[in-house]
Amino acid sequence: MKNLQLKTRKVNDPYEIWKCDAMNFEWRVLKKWQVNDDKQYARWFCAVKSDMTYGQWEYGDVYVSEIKEYARKVDNITQV
Q1: Fewest C-beta in 10 Å: which of 36, 42, 63, 78?
Q2: pTM: predicted TM-score of the whole model, two decimal places
Q3: CA separation for the pair 61, 64 (Å, rounded)
Q4: Are 57 and 48 in contact (CB under 8 A)?
Q5: What pLDDT is stored for residue 33 in this prediction?
Q6: Which of 25, 27, 36, 23 is nearest to 62 (CA)?
Q7: What is the Cα–Cα distance from 6 to 30, expressed in whole angstroms?
Q8: What confidence score (pLDDT) does residue 78 get?
Q9: CA-CA distances (angstroms) from residue 54 to 6, 64, 79?
Q10: How many CB atoms lie within 10 A of CB 44?
Q11: Residue 65, C-beta contacts closer than 8 angstroms, at least 6 positions apart
């Protein structure tokens, strides 16, 4: 199966957005390294913003399991 989300996108045009309101985190998925996100070490390249980043975006790879454990996927990303 071909990975259709392997091309890196800009922070304002992510593939997905995940939020954790309790900790005020937002992850914007800019690239998926693999097709199967259920693998143990599956990772996404993300832009992350929180109170700890002083409202600025920080970029890097994040394990998918960590995001899914704490956050919920935002349904309608056209309003970002």
Answers
A1: 78
A2: 0.89
A3: 9
A4: yes
A5: 96
A6: 27
A7: 9
A8: 57
A9: 29, 23, 22
A10: 25
A11: 40, 42
